[in-house]
Amino acid sequence: MKKINLRADCASCSALCCMALAFDRSSLFAIDKAAGEACPHLDECGACLIHRERAERGFAGCVTFDCLGAGQRATQFFSGGSNWRKDPSLVEPMSRAFGQLLRAHEYLSLLDLAEALDISAAERDVLAELRTALEDAGINGREIAAVQSRIDTFLKSLNGYVSEGTACLPH
């Protein structure tokens, strides 16, 4: 199985982060926006009208957010060119798929970090099995949650590989 790409590709997404996520007025967002509601700065094609000046306009949260590829992957689950802008009945299912995949991709990112540790061959086998199970779960929230629980247990078992106070991020 090909490893899922954890890089955001906004051109292959249907602006799910701009619709599915809530914004709370703060230093990161200049407005309040409910989840499932389109950001008022989206044009009719789903492009950000203030993209080049997001930070200056009070949207630093948009600049720093990374969906880890969950947006384009969720968009791919809804084939045939349909998306929430063309068909408002897709707002809820696309938002749900995006949220589930966002959590799954965060866990895949954690598995990538664990893979950089000097773990045993048996632990690498467990890691590979967990990755495959999470990738195979698709947008099934129950399956994703079950695998995440197993990943939590696995990652806790790796605590001995990380010294207190040291970062384990690969360079």
Quick structural summary:
The chain has helices at residues 16-20, 60-64, 70-76, 91-115, 121-136, 141-157. By secondary structure, the protein is an all-alpha fold.
Walk me through the structure:
The protein is mainly alpha-helical and 171 residues long. The mean pLDDT is 92. The chain has helices spanning 16-20, 60-64, 70-76, 91-115, 121-136, 141-157.
Mean pLDDT: 92
Computed structural class: mainly alpha
How far the N terminus sits from the C terminus, by CA atoms, comes to 25 Å
Can you count the beta strands?
A: 0
Computed over alpha carbons, the radius of gyration is 18 Å
| Proportion of helical residues | 40-55%
What are the low-pLDDT stretches, counting only 5+ consecutive residues below 50? none
**Tally of separate helices:** 6
The main pleated sheet reads as: none
Say what oligomer this is.
Answer: single chain
Q: What spatial form do the alpha-carbon principal axes imply?
A: globular
Tell me the β content: under 5%
What letter string, H or E per element, gives the SSE order? HHHHHH
Topology:
Blueprint: H1 16-20, H2 60-64, H3 70-76, H4 91-115, H5 121-136, H6 141-157
Keywords:
171 residues; 6 helices; 44% helix; 0% strand; globular
